[in-house]
Amino acid sequence: MAEEMRKDTPIDIERDTDAILLDDVNRDLYDFKDEEREEDFYKVDEGLTPDIIREISKEKHDPDWMLEFRLKSLELYNKIEVPDWGPPIDGLNMDRIVTYVRHKSDMKSTWEEVPEDIKNAFEKLGIPQAEREALAGVGAQYDSELVYHNVREDVKADGVIYTDMESALTGEYADMVREHFMKLVPPTDHKFAALHGAVWSGGSFVYVPKGVKVDIPLQSYFRLNARGAGQFEHTLIIVDEGADLHFIEGCSAPKYNVANLHAGCVELYVAKNARLRYSTIENWSKNMYNLNTKRAICEEGGIIEWVSGSFGSHESYLYPTSVLKGDNSHAEFTGVTFAGKGQNLDTGAKMIHIGKNTSSFIDTKSICKGGGISTYRSSVVITKSAEGSKASVNCGSLMLDSISRSDTVPAIEMRTDKADVGHEAKIGRISDEAVFYLMSRGISEAEARAMIVSGFANPVSKELPLEYAAEMNNLIKLEMEGG
Amino acid sequence: MVMKESLKVNNLPVLTWNKLKLNHAPLDIDHEFTGKEVLKVDTMPEGVSVEEGIGSKELLKRFDELGIKNPKEQFVAGKYPMYNKQSFATGMGADIDKLMEETNTKASVYTVDAGKSVKEPTFLRYEYADGDNVLDNTFIHAKAGSESTFIMYYTCGTKSLEERWDGKASGFSGNLTRVYLEKNAKVHLIKVQMLDKGFLFFDDIGGYSEADSSFEVTKLELGATNVYDGLNEAQMGYKSDFKVNYGYIGLPDSICDINYNDVFWGKKANGVMRFSEALMGNAKKTFRGTVDFRAGCEKASGDEEENVLLFGEDIVNKTIPLILGEEEDVEGRHAATIGRLSDDMLFYMQTRGIDKKKAEELMVRASMASISAAIPSEEIKKDIKDYICQIFK
Amino acid sequence: MSNILLSIKGLSASVDGEKILDNINLDIRKGETHVLMGPNGAGKSTLGNVLMGNPVYKVESGSILFNGEEIVGESTDKRANRGMFLSFQNPLEVPGLGLDSFIRNAKRQQTGKPVKIFQFKKELEETMKLLNMDHSYADRDLNVGFSGGEKKKAEILQLLMLNPTFAILDETDSGLDVDAVKTVSKGVEEFQKNGDKALLIITHSTRILESLKVDHTHILVSGHIVKSGDGSLVDEINEHGFESYM
Question: Which residues sit opposite A347 in a β-bridge?
Fold first, then answer.
């Protein structure tokens, strides 16, 4: 019986192509399919076998330990069950996912050298432009590999390392990478962490040395362009004692009528008294299964701040985790999720308090519309050792119609009496009075509703740099208009 | 005959990470149910009548005839399909129905006459002795426009706290209580449990409310080290009203597992659930509380609040308060405050010369007193007061 | 001979790292009534809270002597049991805890002895009568559903019942109508009658002071006492406001 209940809501591509095309008109900005020629790309066969893993490893010139790591992860992947909670993922047929796609050109460090077709794709998304304006460094990943990487000279001079994972594996910091790689998110963690361990490719390595404060953000942009492919980038950031960094991650993909998969992994190490802010605007296309794992660990006095906007994908499982290991460490999670038609977005956060006097704050907003399902899911765990800790959770849901669904599933576990946890959640709709009030000032109803929704998401957008806040509001407007 | 099986109860309506062990609770049965009569009817006022010996199938037939039927569960991914299994849903779930059927536990059906306002409470006293393993199945049918109060009081007789907690007496008290409220009916269900330490107590409640009805549940769990509590309320009718006031004191070694669901189907339905708990020593408690808005329950309002005071180095407190929304035009809220006495309150108490320990005691006593205030029995109120006084002595 | 009850020396305090009180010096003798005035945000309530030991505020430096003994660092309940009292601007609500039972518990903590019920009830009844409080309030839950005026009366009731030697009244007259101010003043007068007591009245208006004897007035601006004087300073403030001190 339970099995029957868990049938996936199919993407409906085959049956409903026209509707999807119509839908896409509104998403031109992100959903354009890049012009590309098959012969320019190298890809492995569909599906997952030890041979495919060996092929990927060889293609990527992995060190030996990495090949071994991949094969072990594959074994785990085959053993671990898919989760029995959350959005159903049986629409995802792993035998048909292409795990590795690479453009047959090497990574470039000046924009002019990037192949025209890829450059066009990123230009449309405004990536190099953003770099010129407000970033300390940019990495751009196209399908499975980074195609562009650049860091500002002054940041480099401070000793900040920002490079692609592949170079990091064999470069100057190889030992540091090996010491940290998938230690925070081991492949045993869950099925898609195991998958990631087996087929990961691309992503970034960042190291900020002791005491260095990078005052403008670093950014990395991921685009999955190949049809029926997976993207499995690995991001490893180490912020050393007393250092400070803001890292921004953006994702998008065009829409194809087969499932795409994103199973990335982000591992963040925040040393004593260091601070890291990790911001994400995720806008994968609506055929994407986004099964991403993000985790941070904070040493004494360390601060991790997550800012997260989830707009895209068909289904998402996304719960950035903060492990507050050191005394007096602190975590904040601010997130907004907008689930529109055909989307089932299961997002939230996890906080694990271990050190004394640690504190965490979760503030999230979920919006659903047009039949979308948004689920806020979290867990706050205060272990016995975390005396004097404080945690607070605040989540709001806004439903824009009654064909959508919004669930709030927050768990709290306390194992000491010397801590305090507060939790508050609310669900509701746009108040008619508010709409009327705005309309009485001459604003159209649609505009008024969009304004109110943007206001609802404001706690998130105000945490983002200006250009990204604008992008987020743009996405909200798009979602409000579509469907 | 010894029953031996492992039940899966208190299923979380929407599943989450298995690691948290919140998705359901295991209830291991390894008991010989004696069928002994532990129930004494203290008072049975005019306007209330009882029929005994109703078998499980007969009871189901009656639900059917009364038109009690939880609407079919809509397809929702990752949800526990509880409604497919029970036509009259309860908080602990279908396994309790199964247990009643397998043990051939006959139900008692209490009927409150239509239009009758019964002021005096129907007082059902369940008095347990060492070794009693008893199941009870009760169905309360409140006919249209009736008004009634039911008290179910579970004790091992009057004893001091030391005697209750010396671990000498043990037993099993399993209870299933369903309440059906017809239009305009009003029921106040009061349950107070003060069994000895060695008891396992489960209390599975189902409510089904038609239009303009009002269902109030007052509940105090003060005894037994092993407690399972479930409740499912289906607010079917227009403007039905539902209220829960729940109190729990977890003495050292206690384990308590709670699953309360308020499900809104009818328009303008209103539900408020308040939980006050205190955990001491190494007490462990799991609380699941769900406010569930179904499509069509326009202008419904659901509110749930849990306050937990923790007083023990080895306590484990798990809380998962859900809000599920299928309907846009609703107001839902839940809040939880878990931990120590708030700084403001502690400071206020201290400015009057009351120290921290005494302030904590006063807060626990106050929260239980504000729940027991609604119990129309001086005897029970006094028992509760004496009991709490002894805890803090 | 020292009849100094409370002596504040060089007291500075902060909240969340922000300095709110700066080098406060003040002596209060037995039998005296002091008034602390000042514009909103001057730190008046902070002083009351710091004297009483609210852990939200951090004492940066200085000392507070009560009956010649240092009390900085001592917990609030111990200060209360030394004979200090603070009436709250916004008293807290406790559902399930009766007003009478609360006062009885506080008295028991104060004396360490059980309270004689009959005598207590009689005293409570008389005091409530003095404050024009309906006797039913004794059984009601502490501050739950009380109006603003009733809450303030309940604070004064506690003041008279617990009978401290030094009381701080924090904005006790704010938000009250004329009759309620009169009743509260009557309660405070009753407290003043005993010559050994001392009062610190924190207020930004002067209504409560009309019928009370005031010995000293202090004006607090931005965490400093900028002027001290006798009772007549109240009238001056009444006329000219705080502008000239800011």
Answer: A318, A376
